[in-house]
Amino acid sequence: MIYVNLFDNPPPQDWIDRADALTEQLIDAPDKTARDVIIHSNQRMWTEIKQHLSDVKSRKCWYTESINDGTHAHVDHFRPKNRVTDENKVESDGYWWLAFDWRNYRFSGQAPNVRKRDYFHVNSGRAFNYGDDIDLEDIRFLDPVKPRDPDELVYTNEGKVVPKNPDKTSRGYIRAEYTIRRMFLDKEGLVEGRRDKYRKTSNLIREINNLLKLQDVNFSPARKNKIEGKFEELIRMASSTSEYSAAVRYCLKSSALEWALSIIAKAA
């Protein structure tokens, strides 16, 4: 998971205008049955916006950072639109008034969206009705559109994603564990992909560090070009649009090398 600047990437105004009109219909609807008909009849709305959301991070799933063009990507309603199931399996009505709100959409691979389903645990401040303030909710899921949330996850050299805070009673651990489990972030294929990127990053760090030491002893223009080429490779790998870049960045950060930390700053 890596931060996604969703709010500075709105969809076309025509789409927003049509979505707002549908939301007004939902608000004016007499009951849940009528609202369900409106939502079901207009599912094409989030299909229309799928490509736009995909382009924000170059086809990457916002939860897993995987690019798998062979699977069917989804538009996830982060706050479920029809029904909500909390961690105790208690069900309640969904956030129907957000069904056509683009700010509630997340571009998702098939696995995390199917696994997530209607799960959405709120610790306190649950918004049950239109007009309730969702900003007062203390939610359990980590959200990629929140700048600090992805930092609650860290990555091992085996490609596993684990909570940053090892204290199982801490809020950070509980949110990270819930997100990993409910979004299937530890799926075997994802672990393999992150492991490959982590090991490649680690190898590049060692190679560059050895070359830099040699440069300090005996400067070589050819070696300088080789170092710069490897720097550029790491910058591309650490870019937020690159697959599994969070694992790459964590590996760079873990090295504690000044030049490696500068790679993170340079990566877009």
Question: How are the SSEs placed, and which strands pair?
Answer:
Layout: H1 13-28, H2 32-41, H3 44-48, H4 50-56, E1 74-77, E2 83-85, E3 91-93, E4 105-108, H5 110-116, E5 122-124, E6 138-139, E7 153-155, E8 161-163, H6 171-182, H7 188-217, H8 221-238, H9 245-255, H10 258-266
Antiparallel strand pairs: 1-4, 2-3, 5-6, 7-8
Helix pairs in contact: 1-2, 7-8, 7-9, 9-10
Keywords for this entry:
268 residues; mainly alpha; 2 domains; two-stranded antiparallel sheet; 10 helices; 9% strand; elongated
What is the H-and-E element order? HHHHEEEEHEEEEHHHHH
Helix content: 40-55%
Termini, distance in Å? 15 Å
Low-confidence stretches are: none
Please, how many domains? 2
Query: Mean pLDDT, nearest integer?
Result: 95
Report the structural category. mainly alpha
Q: Could you explain the architecture of this structure?
A:
The protein is mostly helical. It has two domains: 13-153 and 166-182, no CATH class; 190-266. The chain is built from ten helices and eight strands. It has helices spanning 13-28, 32-41, 44-48, 50-56, 110-116, 171-182, 188-217, 221-238, 245-255, 258-266; strands at 74-77, 83-85, 91-93, 105-108, 122-124, 138-139, 153-155, 161-163. The strands form four sheets. It has a two-stranded antiparallel ribbon.
What's the gist of this structure?
This protein has ten helices and eight strands. By secondary structure, it is mostly helical. The strands form four sheets. It has a two-stranded antiparallel ribbon.
